Amino acid sequence: QVLLVAEAAYRLGERGIIEYLDAQRQFRLVRIELLDARLELQRARSDLDDWPDADPMTTLFRVFRAFGVLR
User: Fold this and answer.
1) DSSP state of 1
2) What are the b/e assignments for 3-40, b being 16+ CB within 10 Å?
3) Distance CA 4, CA 9 (A)
4) Beta carbons of 40 and 70 less than 8 angstroms apart
5) How many Cβ atoms are within 10 Å of 66's Cβ, its own excluded?
6) pTM of the full predicted structure?
7) What is the pLDDT of residue 44?
8) What pLDDT does residue 1 have?
9) Of 29, 55, 64, 69, which has the most beta carbons under 10 Å away?
10) Are 18 and 6 in contact (CB under 8 A)?
C-alpha cells in the first residue's frame, strides 16, 4: 500500500521521482527479507522432518533466523 501511495503522490506531482524510487527500493528490500525468512523457515521445517538425522543446533539456528531472532 505504501508503494501505491508513493506512486499516486508522484503522479499527482506531490512527490518527486527520488521519493518514489526510494519507496520502490524499500519495498524490494522488505520483500527480499520476507522471502529469505520464508526460505529459512522451510529449511528448518525440512530439518525437523529429518530430525533423527539433523543437527539440533543447525535446526535451532535456522528457526531463529527464520523468525528474525538472529541475522
Assistant:
1) -
2) eeebeeebeeeebeeeebeebeeeeeeeeeeeeeeeeb
3) 9
4) no
5) 19
6) 0.62
7) 81
8) 83
9) 64
10) no
Distance (Å, whole) CA 39 – CA 33: 10
Distance in angstroms (rounded) separating the CA atoms of residues 60 and 15: 45
Cβ–Cβ under 8 Å, residues 37 and 56: no
Give the pLDDT mean for 19-24: 93
Q: How many CB atoms lie within 10 A of CB 67?
A: 12
Q: What is the DSSP string of 15-71?
A: S-HHHHHHHHHHHHHHHHHHHHHHHHHHHHHHHHHTGGGS-HHHHHHHHHHHTTS--
Question: 539433523: which residue's cell?
Answer: 54
